[in-house]
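Reviewer 2 asked us to include a model.

Predict the structure of this chain.
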Amino acid sequence: MFQLTPQFWSIVVTTIFTVVISISLYYFVINKQDPNKEPKGLMVWLEYYVLGFNRLMDSMTGGKLRPAYAYLFTLMNFIIINELIVWFGWESPATSFLFTFTLGMITFIGIYIIGIGTMGLFHFMRHKYINPLELFSQFSPLISISVRLFGATFAGAIIGDIMFIVIDGLLGPGHDGFLSVYPAVSGLWDWIYRTIDTMLSLIQAFIFTVLTAVYWTQEHGGSWSPSERRQNRKEIKQQKKALIAKQKALEAKKK
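Predicted model (structure tokens):
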């Protein structure tokens, strides 16, 4: 019988949190901001956060992926909220490989959408599969980006459990668990572990987003317009011909 996992309910909760937070920020903060006045309070932090993200993406992608910034920004924040809900007793969805693989598959499909859309099918396939030996290496982005997030989150959970067992056994055999004897230490350790694990997970959420932007930028051919792509290819050919002509002229002078 089909049974829903804790990670599934965590995704549902995360989605609800994301929608509620987004709507609340829009109606109670952004919508009330007068565009003719300087922002104040929370609005200032929101602008710094969004503009800082956009500047980072511009520096990494050269502005090629600006139409995709909204997705990349949503992706990063969605993963962050998924990691933060562990503080409320929910299971992190990233501990399920299906969750991270799905996000990785979206990134992987995006590589082909951007590549074909900006290069054209023929030029993209020639660029991507010019060497048959590299056929299997084309799947490396999907594997690396999926396993990275899953491994970091899952490893953090395992390390936390191992440390809990080690600390709880400090009094040795025949005694009650150390953390049960000293409940204050148990609470302190739980807070420290969750903080460290959350920080590492937030870093992985940022890395996942950055890698997505890098993979997409690498396959960006320059333009979504077929006419502009043809014009760019003509200009490149003309530049190559001019360069070859100059080289031949220099060789002729030397002779």
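The first helix runs from residue 6 to 30. The radius of gyration is 26 Å. We have added this to the supplementary material.
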